[in-house]
């Protein structure tokens, strides 16, 4: 919402790729009534937002880690320098 009457919505990412390469959708709608609906919905979503990893996401991550491992592969390192004395 720009001015309580204009709504800009769509998949457009405001990047050079979006502007010149990707197939994007962008709608500009001037409607105070629609802007009010969008404002209420954005406020509702903002109130329910959680920052960081949510408890639900952490449980899913823990289950996947138990099932598959951490996915981190450790690289063995040598302590010798390879120099001959």
- As a percent range, the share of strand residues is 5-15%
How large is the count of helical segments? 3
Number of domains: 1
Shape: elongated
Portion of residues within helices: 40-55%
- In whole angstroms, how far apart are the ends? 72 Å
Average residue-wise pLDDT: 85
Number of strands: 2
Q: Structural class given helices, strands, pairing? A: alpha+beta
Mind describing the biggest β-sheet?
Answer: 2 strands, antiparallel
Q: Kindly report the spatial arrangement of strands forming the biggest sheet.
A: 1-2
Weakly predicted, low-confidence segments: none
| Order of H and E elements | EHEHH
**Rg for CA atoms:** 25 Å
How is this structure best described in words?
With 85 residues, the chain is an alpha+beta fold. It has one domain. 42% of the residues lie in helices and 12% in strands. The protein is built from three helices and two strands. Strands 1-2 form a two-stranded antiparallel ribbon. The chain is elongated, with a radius of gyration of 25 Å. The termini are far apart. The model has no long low-confidence stretch (mean pLDDT 85).
């Amino acid at each position: 919402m720009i001015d309580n009457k204009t709504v800009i919505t769509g998949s457009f990412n405001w990047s050079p790729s979006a502007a010149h390469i990707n197939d994007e959708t962008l709608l500009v709608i001037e409607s105070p009534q629609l802007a009010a609906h969008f404002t209420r919905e954005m406020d509702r979503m903002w109130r329910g937002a959680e920052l960081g990893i949510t408890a639900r996401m952490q449980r899913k991550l823990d289950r996947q880690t138990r099932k598959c491992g951490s996915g981190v592969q450790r690289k063995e390192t040598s302590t010798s320098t390879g120099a001959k004395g």
